[in-house]
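Hey team,

Filing this mostly as a record. A colleague (T.K.) asked me to run one chain through the structure pipeline before their review meeting, and I want the input and output archived in the tracker in case anyone asks later how it was produced. No errors, nothing strange. Just documentation.

Input sequence:
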Amino acid sequence: MNNQKKQSVCCFTGNRPKKFPWDYYDKSHVCQTAYLNELTDQILSLISEGFNYFICGGAIGADMDFAEIVLCCKSVFDIQLEIAVPCPNQDDYWQERDKIRYQNILKKADVVKMISPVYSHFCMQKRNRYMADKSDVLLSASNSLHAGGAANTRKYCASKHKRNEHIELLFFAEHPESLLGDIADHIEFGLKEQAKKTKAIQKLKKPR
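Output structure:
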């Protein structure tokens, strides 16, 4: 009898920092916080639906955010992370902070798949199609004003009739006044959940 768990696969594509409609590296920016909250919510929602295998390309920006959130979720859920690397040394020209972040993700990933043995003009597209073909759903986070790999991957998935969940980055930049409440709600929810855990621990510690 085969007890192997069926894989339900989600791949991710997203923008690099320069295409974010705010300063991506400003971690205190209200838009950055709201975007990360939304990305976390989307991943948790997919996990609750039964998705247990997650793939991204590990590029700077949204890819790394996605990978790090999935890695955090691995401590609670039975899920796996695959990094589909387009070619060797894709981090050659990155800043040191991004290289360190990338290498840390690779070390913690369950699978690292090398798509092309050498760099070519088509290796990124080949990587994106590999992820899309392997997946049941595409999750994306991008600025729709910019064309590029994320937009092309969404179009490719649509042509294959794949489910597509999208986070529009432009929304956060255009409606910053609406984000403060969302962030406050996340904080309030987190405090309530922590209070529940504390009460549960206290009950366990009480002498019987």
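Quick notes for T.K.: Residues 9 and 53 are 5 Å apart (CA to CA). The mean pLDDT is 87.
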